[in-house]
Predict the 3D structure of the following.
Amino acid sequence: MHPDIEAFNKAQNEEDRKICESLSSMIDKYLAEAEIKIWHRHPVWFLDENPTVGYSRLKAGIRLMFWSGADFEEEGLKPGTGKFRDASIIYTSVEEVIEKDLKRWLKKSKLIQWDYKNIYKTKGKLNRLK
């Protein structure tokens, strides 16, 4: 596990730490080619320098977010409310993390991508990459 991600996970309370460790382990397993870093103070996995998936601590629980997830057509992911193409799910217990769902979403994250990497160059306009 990436040391920065490990430090982020260890900083969480016990239940949130379990969720974070479960998520990071599965994301590393199914998105092994991704670059991993702390971005805006949260763990994020990048494909070709484009943010793909990450998680953060919210008051409601641990939010797993896919930057292009609104186009995955998945019931379990709730689309964001802004102009971006994100979708997420909030976990409050490690038992809620279903590996087969996460594996399917991560597969879709490789196939469906919007260009967040160049969003400043395009003045906020998102272009579909895949």
